[in-house]
From TrEMBL:
UniProt-recorded Gene Ontology molecular function terms: transmembrane transporter activity
SUPFAM superfamilies the UniProt entry points to: MetI-like
Annotated transmembrane regions: 21-43, 90-112, 119-140, 152-174, 195-216, 222-241, 296-314, 320-340
Source species: Tropicimonas sediminicola
Protein family according to the UniProt entry: Belongs to the binding-protein-dependent transport system permease family. HisMQ subfamily.
Record domain ABC transmembrane type-1: where: 150-344
Topological type in the membrane: Multi-pass membrane protein
CDD domains: TM_PBP2
Annotated localization: Cell inner membrane; Cell membrane
Record has Endoplasmic reticulum as a keyword: no
Protein name (Swiss-Prot/TrEMBL): General L-amino acid transport system permease protein
Length: 356
């Protein structure tokens, strides 16, 4: 008579994994006590003994023993909006909301088409840019030099993604061209750019490029940095997409060609959809890295959210509250990155079910 399989319960798995021997039990209890002690201390510092209001600023560091979140209450506008004019900061806030809503709507399956998704992002980006730049619909013009904070971080990330993703698709297609000259040249370009640090590319486009360009082509430093960052992103993403293409069975494209489908129909309807499905995990990872590395623009003089955080405690009044400011900035990054990673995990599960 065959034995029936007994699936262990949660308690049985915990006992087998953490309390099976006296050594495992000792280590589990000791490590658990250490973690609990750290969490209780952190909770006490961050919540129980914290100072929350700017009106209670005098209590910071004088017997409270907790975090001084009063610096966030006093300087949150600087962190979120940077150098943007105070009376116009409502525009920056609405622009950030527009980009977040655009990202949320792009998660809705109805927008997952080659026509709707680009239109959605172009419309959302146009709303963001008009609100930030002004000059239309009676809005006061605000130059890019006065942009900053979270809105500048979102602008750089969205711009790099919108420019870099189409470039990555073109680079990947050129890299797998059947013409050796085209494929070899594209391979050299991609490998050269990928071998360079992102910071050196930003410096080149921000500082060096104006010396070799004609005056009419120089443009604003912010846009030159975005183009350089998009090129860097495109080279990495192109290799990710090309890996997704190479994972496809060779017979699929050959069968489509035998059926009389043209090149662009084969690429648009057969190759790219499956390539992006195969390359989804590294693509999400690349987007996460891109969002976090927007902080590098602080090195070349841009006032993004991390630089705004530095300025928030960079006064004699708040110079002791750097830990609280960095925790708040880290929470901003965590919110966006965690949401992006969870959405990527959801897409993986959805596409895995659809592929069965």
């Amino acid at each position: 008579m065959a034995k029936t399989y007994h699936k262990p319960t949660f308690i049985e798995r915990i006992r087998a994994n953490y309390f099976s021997t006296w050594l495992d039990t000792t280590l589990t209890l000791g490590f658990g006590a250490l973690v609990l002690w750290v969490l209780l201390g952190l909770f006490d510092w961050a919540f129980l003994n914290a100072v929350w209001s700017e009106a209670e600023r005098e209590q910071c560091g004088h017997g409270s023993g907790g975090a001084c979140w009063a610096v966030i209450d006093a300087r949150w506008r600087l962190i979120f909006f940077g150098l943007y004019p105070f009376e116009e900061q409502w525009r920056s806030a609405i622009a950030c909301i527009a980009m977040v809503v655009t990202g949320a709507l792009s998660c809705v399956p109805w927008f997952w088409s080659a026509r709707r998704l680009p239109v959605l992002w172009l419309v959302g980006f146009a709303i963001f840019y008009v609100l930030m730049r002004g000059g239309l619909f009676g809005l006061t013009p605000v130059s890019e030099q006065n942009w900053g904070g979270l809105s500048l971080t979102l602008f750089i990330f969205a711009s790099v993604t919108l420019i870099g993703m189409p470039m990555a698709i073109v680079f990947a297609l050129l890299r797998r061209s059947h013409l050796p000259m085209i494929a070899g040249t594209m391979g050299v370009i991609i490998d050269t750019i990928r071998s360079l640090p992102l910071l050196s590319i930003m410096f080149t486009f921000a500082i060096v490029l104006p010396f070799v360009l004609p005056g009419w082509a120089v443009g604003d430093k912010l846009y030159r940095v975005i183009v350089g960052y998009a090129l860097f992103f495109a080279c990495y993403q192109a290799e990710i997409i090309r890996g997704g293409m190479q994972a496809l069975p060779a017979g699929q494209e050959e069968a489509a060609q035998a059926l009389g489908m043209g090149y662009w129909h084969r690429i648009g309807y057969i190759v790219l959809p499956q390539a992006f499905r195969n390359a989804l995990p590294p693509t999400i990872n690349q987007l996460v890295i891109t969002f976090k590395e927007t902080s590098l623009v602080v090195i070349i003089g841009f006032f993004e959210v991390l630089a705004s955080g530095n300025a928030a405690y960079g006064t004699a009044e708040w110079n002791f509250a750097h830990i609280e400011v960095y925790c708040f900035v880290a929470l901003i990054y965590f919110t966006f990155v965690f949401a992006l990673s969870r959405y990527g995990a959801y897409l993986e599960r959805r596409l895995a079910v659809a592929a069965r």
